[in-house]
Amino acid sequence: MKKKYSYFSFLLFLFLLFLATVSKSQTCSTVPLTILSQYQTTGSPLPMTPVADRLSRPYLYVAAKDGGLLIFDISVITIPVLSQTLDISHFDSLHVMNVYQQGNYLYLALGNFFGNGNTQKPGIAIVNITNPLNPVVTDIWEYPTVEKGSAYVTVDGNYAFLGGMTKGLIILNVSNVNAISYVSEYLPNPNYPLNNPTASQMPNARGLAVSGNKVYVCYDAGGLRVIDITNINAPTQTGQYINVACLGKQQAYNNIILNGNLAYIAVDFCGMEIVDISNTSSITQVGWWNPYNCEGLSNLWLNSPGHMNEIAYLPADNAIFLSAGGSQLRVIDVTNPALPDSCNGYGITNTQEGSWGLDVYQNKIYLANITSFIPFFSTWKGIKILGWASTQGVGEDSVDRGKVTVQPNPFSEETEIQYELNKSNSTTIEITDIIGREITEFGRLKLNSGPQKIKWNGRNAAGEEVAGGMYFVKIKTNNNSSITKLFKISK
Questions:
Q1: Would you say 380 and 39 are in contact if contact means Cβ atoms under 8 Å apart?
Q2: By mean pLDDT, which of 112-116, 347-351, 416-420 is the weakest?
Q3: Superfamily of domain 393-488, CATH level 4
């Protein structure tokens, strides 16, 4: 019996080791990041947020604080050229803190929030960039009183949503780009997680994301707040979350990206959290990338080697990108949301260079570096452009040199598998579990070349819902095959 038990234990150990190896396997690129070019700013401009033109024109837009809005020509990626500047005189002397693009319009978050004695009114401006070399400000809206500026802006439909720092969430109607109008605002309760916070402990509304009738607000020092905007004129809070492991510290939730029922959150010196938002009244942590030992006594914010601020996501590569202060850029593999792990990055601490913002678009990473003294020391300000070796359409994720993506991934009810064939082919698609057992098959399909998509509802061939965990979608043609991971979250 003793030998049988030992043999069984050994097999169990090997199986668990196999599971651990599979669950930690990465799809995010580990090819070293390389600098394609950089542009050092002098004088007033302090690059905060870069945005590459989303109409695929060769321009880069940079919110540059008291330097206004900068527009770079990047048609020659190795030699960025500053082509246009809209200084703050175009914005009633309000600093440009953040930028968002929708079509031929830029939306700027206005109002300095750095420091204690030089803050400004929160506001937004809309800039027409039909011709990026001749930008035109169409309208400006300002809050009636000086508060603590604004940190972030995004647009959904006819509405702009502003992270208004001490004023919370501000909602504006931007359906007429020539006449911005106030709609409503919502100030989350500041007495969470700390009752009666001091002035330095007071929460501020930073980054945010909109999905359906909900706005997810990163409330610096106040956790994540979920605001219901079913009645856009009277928003209400329906959920809140903070990491209980760090309740003794002032956690700064800075920015957020949504992916189905998951939210990825940049949490200053606490790394990145992944939380399940399927039930906003009971948000739970799924995973936590915590390289700086946030909860430890030795990490005191000021001395932390990393400060996560802005965040970007490439679903095809299962990669999260974080501007990381003195650690500059960190890339996190989220193939398994329960075990997020660093897979790439640029810059190391103690180089006297620190980043504030970033953007990722078309295999390029745009990094905005600032000069600062606290919480990280940095003496170089400007823009760095790096190349990203995407795994999309390469290796295990290719079908006849096409592309495979799964969105959302992870999912709870239904996910869409998108792929591309370079030529007409007979194709078989099947879902298997972690040890290769077939869960369901979509049959042999005769498909033309080009984009294809199929949906899986998380059920097996008998129509029964499968358990949460890791699965594989196998796409096979006469000439090639692809295996891609997908994760199902239990309801």
A1: no
A2: 347-351
A3: Macroglobulin (MG2) domain (2.60.40.1930)
